[in-house]
Amino acid sequence: MVNLYDHNGAPVHHGRARVNGVRLHYVTAGQGTPLLLIHGTPKTHSYWQRLIPLLTDKFTIVAPDLRGFGDSDKPMSTTGYESTTMTDDLAELMSQLDYDKYAVHGEDRGAEYAYVIAARNRDHVTHLSFGEMMLSGMGLEELSHFTEKNLSARMERRGTWKWHNPFFYIPDLPEMLITGKEREFWTWWMRAEMWDPSALPNDLADEWVSHIASPGGLRALLDTYRAPFSNAATNQKLAIEPLKIPVMATGAREFYGHHVGDQMRKVATNVQEHVWDDCGHSLALEQPERLAANLRNFIA
Fold it and tell me: Which domains, ranges and CATH numbers included, belong to the chain?
């Protein structure tokens, strides 16, 4: 396991919570305003290794392993990986920890969950930081289409073709092709999304791959991609009432870029946008100091 530390060099605190029919693993650190960090795919709480010590003097960090990831449960379920279920887990976790008001930062698929938890828990979430993602049913699918425009997007630095969404959705086939090649596939995939491939250290890659290769790991990860239409319906319903809380949208030109801010302006009324030139998909690994500074300024 990769060790994480706060700004004083003290190790984070590990915990287990029984929420919504599963057992989640999570870590906490710091003091001050509660800030829930929601990782993406194929990551775990350790994704925040570089970010946490830059925030813990001001924030109480809560960083869980999502259902299906890391040391959290990986239940067999056809509906257990929809965004409503995933965010019910997180809302119950924050309630059990006695945090009635809290801010949320999510990246990649974790950003979609961050939006959903904010939109479904409007009395509890005070700020939403939405990084490097688009919402199901609101433009994400179009970027997955096999078109000349999508194929040329990377060369023109206006995003990338999201080929993996339909591939991961197919039952059984991705499992067959990836099993036994987990490290080769996921390490190549994550570094290909980065501006600076060296920002992914080997120890993090090894930890994530070990969880994916564990019993149920790959199946659970892919199941999060097999709920796009349910997630789309959820997002479209929630967007009818735009968020009024402050929203920070951060995109990197090497991956989602300006799409992130455009997306959030469709679902929120108070949006500040950042588009980073020298960064790829993993904001907290590639530019932790810049992200930490923006979060500190954003969450008063």
Answer: 13-298 (3.40.50.1820)
**Coil, helix or strand at residue 17:** strand
pLDDT at 157 over 80: no
Supply the pTM of this predicted model: 0.97
pLDDT digits (tens, 9 = 90+) for 255-270: 999 999 999 999 999 9
237-260 confidence digits (pLDDT tens): 999 999 999 999 999 999 999 999
